Amino acid sequence: MNMSTTDMTNSPYKTIWHLSWPQILMMIFHLMIGLVDVWVAGKLGREIQASMGMVSQSLFFFLVIGMAVANGSVAAISQSIGAGLMIRAKRYVGLCFQLGAILGSVILLIGFPFRNSILTVLRVPEEMRYVMEYFIEIFLYLLPLYYLLIITNAIFRAQKKVMLPLYSMIIVTVMNTVLDLGLGLGMWGFPNLGYQGLALATFYSVSAGAAFNVFLLYKSGSLRRKSFAPFKWVRSAFPYLLKVAWPSGLMQLVWHSGYLVLYSITASLPFENVVALAGMTAGIKIESILFLPAFAFNMTASIIIGHYLGDGKPEEAKKFGYRILFLAIAFLSITALILWQYIRPITAIIAPEVVVLDEAVNYLFFNMLAIPFTLTSMIMAGALNGAGATLYNLAIFTFTVWGFRLPLAYYLGHQVYESATGVWIAMLLSQIVQASIMFYAFSCLNWQKFSMIKKKRNSDG
């Protein structure tokens, strides 16, 4: 999609949809990978299924730096292209690619000697340890390629080439599914490797996706000698990437650690805590499906805001932020209303026990009420990412999660209601507060100052 900012302004909603629908499909394929992994692991035994869930959560903390660099790359590359500084954009592509390869390798080298200590910190049960030892070893080997997959997908998004990450994710999904069933369950004449087959399926499928992306970058001319700038340029360009990336990475840690504490608050409720925890787990799975389009709109906001700020059009960037928010709320509110009519039979698929089903529906009631507020936070956060204003996101999310949501969840859940309902109400109220602050920040604060200023000069390096 090679539309200029003028073309995008002339067809705003067409632009938003053209950038969003491939990313919605990409998120659906990403979900399918997790579902197939869990399903096959369940066929192999509860220890394997539990190990797969635990290592998936652990993997996030290894990938957080890569996701932070990916956010930095979207801001830097999209703003450079918007400004028409194509040499600078190409050099940022080269720099982000190098950072992906180097950082993934460094974390592998640091983490590998401590891989068994990590399992001890996670308190992995003895009967699961042999599985987790193999999983974490294979996934550590995969880190450099996983970093390249994440960052190259972000590079394509920054260039508005949103179909390419979709193709890459299709390759990963199809290959992972075939190898999960083949190597994991011994289907179609593959060797039956059990849990080892699951880990190898992830390794080979992610490697194939990364190789596909690297090939496309090379074919497009983005990985040529000119893309790798001299050290003098890197020294002046790297600080902007760092300024965007470190708050983004820290915010991810704040958000996910907050969810871990929320799980702990729910697990320690005075009554029916096991039912509450099971209901929350089931509810989050249903909710995550609903929010796949929300993540796509979040990424679209980053792309568009970056291009407009690069082109020196901050007011138009702000207008697009509001347009994306309106479209996302309208689309997902209608979807949620339709889904709510069938919420019990759909939730019963993953929570057949009646008491757990009741609690999952209770969880979903409050969190689906929060949809307009949750979307506001997500879309505004995506817009601020595109502007490079990740420091605002970090400050707002830290306050609302740790200063408001968690204390309120403990108070309402343990002291007032003495049930999970108090926790769910706290989640709704925290989303309202968070959305209000995010909307105020986007509407009233000077977040444009975090972007790179368009430079009027002959050279565009």
Please tell me the overall pLDDT.
88
Look at the helices and sheets and give the structural class.
Answer: mainly alpha
Main sheet properties: none
User: Could you give the count of β-strands?
Assistant: 0
**Multimeric organization:** single chain
In helices, the fraction of residues equals over 70%
For the termini, the CA-CA separation is 24 Å
The coarse silhouette is globular
Low-confidence stretches: 455-460
The number of helical elements comes to 17
| Element order: H for helix, E for strand | HHHHHHHHHHHHHHHHH
Rg value: 22 Å
Amount of beta strand: under 5%
Please describe what this structure looks like.
By secondary structure, the chain is an all-alpha fold. The chain is built from 17 helices and no strands. It has helices spanning 5-10, 12-44, 46-82, 86-111, 115-121, 126-158, 163-185, 195-219, 231-267, 273-290, 292-310, 314-340, 343-348, 354-369, 371-387, 390-416, 420-444. α2 (12-44) packs across α11 (292-310) and α4 (86-111) packs antiparallel against α6 (126-158). The protein starts with a helix and ends in a 17-residue tail after the last helix.
Record keyword descriptors for this entry:
461 residues, globular
Please outline what is shown here.
This protein is mostly helical and 461 residues long. Helix content is 83%, strand content 0%.
Annotate the secondary structure layout.
Blueprint: H1 5-10, H2 12-44, H3 46-82, H4 86-111, H5 115-121, H6 126-158, H7 163-185, H8 195-219, H9 231-267, H10 273-290, H11 292-310, H12 314-340, H13 343-348, H14 354-369, H15 371-387, H16 390-416, H17 420-444
Helix pairs in contact: 2-3, 2-7, 2-11, 3-4, 3-6, 3-9, 3-11, 4-6, 6-8, 7-8, 9-16, 10-14, 11-12, 11-15, 12-15, 14-17, 15-17, 16-17
